[in-house]
């Protein structure tokens, strides 16, 4: 359906994403209602899902379609692992982590105020 150039990283990315989440091909075939061996064919790049399938897969793995088909996710993950000080300015936290951080900041502000009063 799509040209080989357009989806140059799709097969590798599908395998990388599956293994990163410790999933089996059979589990993904069930998840996406695929015929037997279809996921394997996607990973080997011998066939390609249609656009709707690509969008479903991207949503399942919580990535963009652009990331799924155009970027080498495994290489990018290796790069991040080897560059611990590289920071893109984005931090993802869930609401519990956010609440914990907020409470800690409030506690530290009170502590700073207390220390300032003692020094004055």
From TrEMBL:
InterPro entries, sorted: Cro/C1-type_HTH, Lambda_DNA-bd_dom_sf
Record-level Gene Ontology MF annotations: DNA binding
Signal peptide extent: none
Domain HTH cro/C1-type: from-to ranges: 14-68
CDD domains recorded: HTH_XRE (cd00093)
Protein name (Swiss-Prot/TrEMBL): Helix-turn-helix transcriptional regulator
């Amino acid at each position: 359906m799509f040209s080989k150039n357009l989806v140059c990283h799709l097969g590798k990315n599908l395998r990388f994403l599956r293994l990163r989440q410790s999933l089996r091909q059979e589990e993904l075939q069930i998840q996406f209602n695929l015929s037997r061996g279809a996921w394997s064919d996607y990973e080997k790049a011998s066939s390609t899902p249609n656009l709707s399938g690509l969008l479903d897969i991207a949503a399942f793995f919580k990535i963009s379609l652009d990331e799924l088909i155009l970027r080498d996710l495994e290489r990018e993950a290796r790069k991040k692992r080897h560059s611990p000080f590289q920071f893109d300015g984005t931090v993802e936290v869930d609401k519990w982590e956010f609440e914990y951080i907020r409470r800690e900041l409030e506690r530290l502000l009170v502590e700073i105020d207390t220390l300032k009063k003692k020094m004055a």
